[in-house]
User: What shape does this take?
Amino acid sequence: MSPIMVTPYLTSIRQAEKDEIKAAMRTGQIVQLHGPPMVGKSVLIEQVIDEMQTNGTSNNVVHYSVDCKALKSFTEFLQRTFQSLECSSVNNLTSGRGLTSTLVLDKIQSVLKADPSRRHIFVFHKCEALRMSGNDHEHLKFLDCISRLSSSENIKVNVVFTSNVKFPTTGRDIEDVHLRMLTDDLDVESLLKHYSQCKSAMVNHIRICQRILAFPAGIIQFSQKFLNTASTHSAQSLIPMITSDPEFLASIFQRKLEEVTRMRWLDDRDLAFIARCRPVFLRTYTQ
Assistant: This one.
């Protein structure tokens, strides 16, 4: 399976969060990367792995990327995981019949044994559907089995999964990394300058993004549409323009509305942040 395609966000931002993820990725450790939709969880873990490959040698890291979006059954999850290994026998199992946890784990074990000198990183993206469908126990148990191969086979193995709904981890050896909305002044400014052609002072534009569009995709689209060389609008005049532009807002939020119909992935801090935002942001993000 080919890696998930991600928006080419700047690699120079969110370094503190990337460092936190790297610190959590000890050999044999499971890492849960969770937070609201659209904050860049999948992008960030992909960047972390890219940096690991760049700082060492690309041949030292093997990356398995599994897209779990919309998977509602554990059987589908096993099939998708099996496909990520790019097995020669996968075509015989495309229907998922006969696929069991034991079979997939045996295949993973054989893949690891065939290449014991390298670090193997399994990343399961967008796992919230498994949580919401009640398959979280089987999911976490399976990930635990993968991580245990690190000690039993003396091979470096990491397991990371992302979700906008936090999985319960009581009694499990899982590191939680909570990725929040993007509000750091320097990171927001870096995105604005990189994706716009505007050369004016960015202070007021930064404040707008922090109040209304505090996630990378929103800031990027704001930069590209409203901050170009032909724009003569003041920062304050942009607020009503943004909040009254349904096409612009829909282009950012529409594909995510289904994923945020419930508020389970928001904690008190996130709720307080949204409460301070303009009503259009609250309506769009929670309708």
Remarks:
- Residues 1-7, 87-96, 261-265, 282-287 have pLDDT under 50 and may be disordered.
- The domain at 15-178 is CATH 3.40.50.300 (Rossmann fold).
- The CA atoms of residues 226 and 241 lie 9 Å apart.
